[in-house]
Amino acid sequence: MHIAVVLFPRLTALDAVGPYETLQRLPDATVTFVGHQRGEVRTENGYLGLTVDKAFDEVVAPDVVIVPGGIGVLDLLEDKVLLDWLRSVHATSRFTTSVCTGSLLLAAAGLLPGLEATTHWAFMDKLTELGAVPASTRVVEHLEQRTLIAAGVSSGIDMALRLAELLTDQVTAQAMQLMVEYDPQPPFDAGSVEKAGPLVTARAKELFQEKD
């Protein structure tokens, strides 16, 4: 089972690392971090570096593709190398997946035409521009098209567990959940725009602008 995780400058770390931490536990799984060129890329705040193991042209037929999000996605929506690679590997992958704004890259590659998709709540309108249909769902799956799309950041772990079930079985997926002790009990109930309300949402937008 070969899993390819896309890396690029200014990605969101947990978008890649959350699914990685879950799926690297699949029986017989190997994980390759793939990007434009080998070497380090820095996450969106510049504090954390992740390493690209192989360039896109070195990874031609992964079983699973994971495309994380992050503000760096906006610089890649017309990136021919990445979009061509996504189209090519999706032709043979068992599943092509995304987390957060990574779905914008799937849509830009033409993999979500007229299909429901999700992304971070702040970028839903961009999905429409790219030909997908925004859905306020934590994970959207299109099994016939072999795509799974997760909303913002932490939902990538939910998507990875569902993917693990599809690739193996429910008991194995549940065992993987137990191994990472994924049992969310947050101190607040503000994990969606609907729950957070206008005051918290406004503060979140301020924080986005401060970090951009």
From TrEMBL:
This is DJ-1/PfpI family protein. Gene3D superfamilies: 3.40.50.880. Residues 2-165 form the DJ-1/PfpI domain. GO terms for biological process: regulation of DNA-templated transcription. Coiled coil: none annotated. CDD domains: GATase1_PfpI_2 (cd03139). PANTHER family: ARAC-FAMILY TRANSCRIPTIONAL REGULATOR (PTHR43130), DJ-1_PFPI DOMAIN-CONTAINING PROTEIN (PTHR43130:SF2).
